[in-house]
Amino acid sequence: MATPDFIRELRASAGHQLLWLPGVSAIVFDDDGRVLLGRRTDTGRWSIIGGICDPGEQPAQTAVREVYEETAVRCVPERVVLVQALDPIEYPNGDLCQFMDITLRCRAVGGEARVNDEESLDVAWFPLDRLPDLEDFVLMRIKQALGEGPAWFEPIVTL
User: Fold this and answer.
1) Which residue ranges of the chain lie beneath pLDDT 50?
2) Amino acid 20: pLDDT
3) What pLDDT score does 155 carry?
4) What CA–CA distance (Å, rounded) separates 74 from 65?
5) Per-residue model confidence (pLDDT) at position 1
6) Which of 43, 51, 61, 141 has the fewest CB atoms in 10 Å of its CB?
């Protein structure tokens, strides 16, 4: 994932300390029920499309922007699938980040899926019965996006 300019500016004064950031994941379906995935340059693995919200940017706009930037597909967000605080991540350079992931179900409305930036090695539509090897994080989000239920969130532990 390319580091946004505003985060580079924060890192200039914050160093490697933990940054709490809003992230958006987009589960994009086409009219044939296929899901859009990108094979990431940083891990080499297939995953859903996502990124960091720019300051003041609404999560739905982030989803639209990230999907287009990474895949050249135009999409429309339909609903919130889940909201989840993810575990902290330490990057190879020592930077620490923790993301509040907002996952949105989206519908493709135009464009041809292709690699559209340096963040992806490949981009493709996959039928749900022929998904590539995916992390549990991704499978759970696709499963939640297929349902019609309310947005998913971590259950509250009562004391």
Assistant:
1) none
2) 93
3) 84
4) 9
5) 59
6) 43
Q: How many CB atoms lie within 10 A of CB 50?
A: 24
The pairing of strands 19-29 and 49-52 is antiparallel
Q: Residue 42 phi/psi, 5° resolution? A: -75, -30
Q: What is the pLDDT of residue 3?
A: 82
Which residue intervals of 35-87 are DSSP H helices? 59-71
Taking the C-alpha atoms of residue 29 and residue 139, their distance in angstroms, rounded to an integer, is 14
Q: Specify the DSSP element, H or E, that contains 75.
A: strand 74-85
d(C-alpha 62, C-alpha 136), whole Å: 23
At 76, the amino acid letter reads V
| Structure confidence at residue 49 (pLDDT) | 98
Please report, as a single letter, which amino acid is at residue 65.
R
Phi, psi of 65 (to 5 degrees): -65, -50
Cβ neighbour number for residue 128 with a 10 Å cutoff:
12
> Using CA atoms, how far apart are residues 30 and 10, in angstroms rounded to an integer?
37
Distances (CA, A) of 23 to 74, 84, 124, 127: 19, 10, 22, 26
Backbone torsions φ then ψ of 47, nearest 5 degrees: -160, 170
